[in-house]
Amino acid sequence: MSSSLLYAIALRDMFSSRPHALRQLLKAYPKPELAWDRIDGEGKSASLERAKREMEFVERHHIRIVYLHDDDYPRLLRECPDAPVILFMKGNVNLSDGHFVSIVGTRQASERGKVLTREIVLSLAERLPRLTIISGLAYGIDIAAHRAALEIGVPTIIIPAHGLDRIYPPLHRNDAVRALDKGGIVTEYMSGTTPEKYNFVARNRIIAGMAECTVVIESREHGGALITARMAADYDRPVFAVPGRVTDDASLGCNHLIRDHRAMLLQSPDDLLREMNWQSRCATQTTLDLPLSNQPPAAAASDADSPASDASLTEDEQTLMRILRDAEDGVTVNDLVEATQWPFTKISSLLMMLQVKKYVRSFPGGIFLSC
User: Fold this and answer.
1) Domain-terminating residue out of 224, 241, 276
2) I need a labelling partner for 331 at 20 to 30 A (CA). Which of 22, 235, 303, 318 fits?
3) Are residues 180 and 63 part of one domain?
4) What is the pTM of this model?
5) CATH code of 309's domain
6) Given CA atoms 100, 101, 104, 110 in this order, what sign does their dihedral have?
7) Helical spans, DSSP H, in the chain
């Protein structure tokens, strides 16, 4: 690795408690070696020694480093005034191609929240080419988003609050390893950095800054996901929030974001695609001019989108398809729960698989129609 990166790491170490001062220095002297020559003071030699040890660590573990002014530094993140000076990356991370969506939420996610997270990721992946999901590997909504992406082979990027010599929480190590195949792990922290509380707050700006938009699935009234949402809004990036019942503690944060006009209402992936002006790759797309009856528009599927045969469906999926085909105006999840007496989570999961298999389409208002 270049000596320029060595000095970039040393500068990051020396100015760890004064990031704004470092950015001002690098604005005047963009090349790290020139900036290094311009500073004096105690700790300079110690920081350089730590940087040398870090270089040995990253070379030994095949970690990639990108500097703020490198061409391959994440473009969207570079636009942020508090972007990290260096990033350490592990995996097959592509930071320049496709659409990047951050998904965040509470660690104490409800089953509904986890199912909705999976449904949103799978539906976006079906509609949106070159999708990448970004999150923080935490319990609850974060890990649900990563696992949904891994389930269908969509790249996912993990943003931890520590160095690359560990994984936190340890329970999610296997998920992190799987993410390296098509996505990866990106952090601003050197090895030896532990997941302290303030590191989580700081890393949230990377989750918000790397993405074109941020989706909050569930958040309590003062949840950490609201910090990410605020940072995304400060970066002038769209924020979406999934509403919940007013009695659900896990949805208070999302409801307040929508109430205070700090996030757009997200009822289906079509809302996100429309607001972001992203072209869906589905042959049939939801029209935006809904009739006054609030019925979904009728649309004929092309041969390419038509399902093959009911023989490929499970018995439960076939049961839902019989109900859906009898309902000309479409049904909601609650309609299906009432008709089958199955749990909400089971219905949502089955609907998602039927959408992936192209037997069912979703429309605004939570309405589902058979293809």
Assistant:
1) 276
2) 303
3) no
4) 0.77
5) 1.10.10.10
6) negative
7) 3-14, 19-28, 32-37, 44-60, 75-78, 111-127, 141-151, 173-179, 197-209, 224-234, 252-259, 269-276, 315-326, 333-340, 344-356
Cα–Cα distance measured from residue 142 to residue 107, given in angstroms and rounded to the nearest whole number: 8
Domain total of the chain: 3
Average pLDDT of the segment spanning 124-131: 90
* Last residue within a domain, chosen from 258, 276, 294: 276
How far, in Å, CA of 156 to CA of 149, rounded?
A: 6
* Opening angle at CA 330, ends 325 and 332, nearest 5: 115
- Mark whether 220 and 350 lie in a shared domain: no
What is the number of other CB atoms lying within 10 angstroms of the CB of residue 239?
24
Cβ–Cβ < 8 Å for 213, 101: yes
- The span from the CA of 250 to the CA of 137, in Å, is 19
d(CA 264, CA 272): 9
pLDDT band at 1 (very low <50, low <70, confident <90, very high): low
| Residue 292 domain flag | no
Here the CATH number for the domain that contains residue 182 is: 3.40.50.450
Are residue 213 and residue 320 in the same domain, yes or no? no
**Statement to judge: residues 166 and 53 lie in one domain:** no
Tokens coding 2: 């270049």
- pLDDT value of position 344: 83
For residue 362, being part of any structural domain is answered with: yes
CA 159 to chain centre: 10
Is the separation of the CB atoms in 220 and 253 below 8 Å?
A: yes
pLDDT digits (tens, 9 = 90+) for 47-74: 999 999 999 999 999 999 999 999 889 9
What is the mean predicted confidence (pLDDT) over 123-132?
A: 90
Orientation of helix 141-151 relative to helix 111-127, angle to 10°: 40
Q: Is residue 11 part of a domain?
A: yes
Among 71, 114, 63, 119, residue whose Cα is nearest residue 95: 71
Domain that holds residue 346: 303-370
Alpha carbon distance 356, 352 (integer Å)? 6
- pLDDT recorded at residue 55: 96
Report if residue 66 sits inside a domain. yes
